[in-house]
Amino acid sequence: MSFLTYNNVTTDAYNVFCNEAPRSDMALQNNPACKMETYHGGLHCCKHQFFLTDHGQEDMIPEDVDEYFLKFRYYFEEYVEPVESVELEKTEASHKHLTHWVFLIDDAVNDYEEVQCEDGSMCQGMISARLTADQMGLEDKPEDYSTITPYVIDAHCHAPSCIRQELYNEDTGELLCAVEAKYGNGTEVFNEANYIALPPCLFSDLEEEGLRKPFVLERDTNLLAIKIFNTTHRHVGQMAQFTGLMRYDTNTV
Predict the structure, then answer these.
(1) pTM for this one?
(2) H-helix or E-strand containing 249?
């Protein structure tokens, strides 16, 4: 256990260490975020209401509290119940119940460091994780499910170093999803200059233009997740996640 001292109070604020391969290869890379002694900063030292000032500067901390507002717009479709009566034509429900899932490529750390190239040139770094489908952060998981069917796969990574994330079925070598950061250079929607988009991978059972048919993963399907990033400069407090929506399937005899 390692500790941080803030305002003369010692806490276990930094108690995360990199798991060994194959779940994460960060320990093999000796990533600085794996140990407090080499940690250069990020979420674990910048907690809510932590002010990194000297004691003589405490009177410089303003007491003002900023107030801001968020506005949301929701789009939805009315749910239509399935028809199961033998007297009427049977129809399926208009919508499927999907469950959220998420896992971290950098495992429990979620705050890793992208180490700068030694010569400062343009170069790339990579971290990876290996896990089974049953271990990929499934929520509300039933005990008797047999397979899962993803419908949305999205990546979470930070600008300005994020290049792309890839998810593979390691048993077959199939690329399941590749999310590439799109750096805007214009004025149209999703291409605004100085903004970055992360287009997700979307799947559909319907014949919709541009959408792939969903695939099925067994509980013990081996997955390989990769994040590739620009290491021209050092970046601390980085994240590498896959998240999305999926459906549980149960095989019945």
Answers:
(1) 0.82
(2) strand 240-249
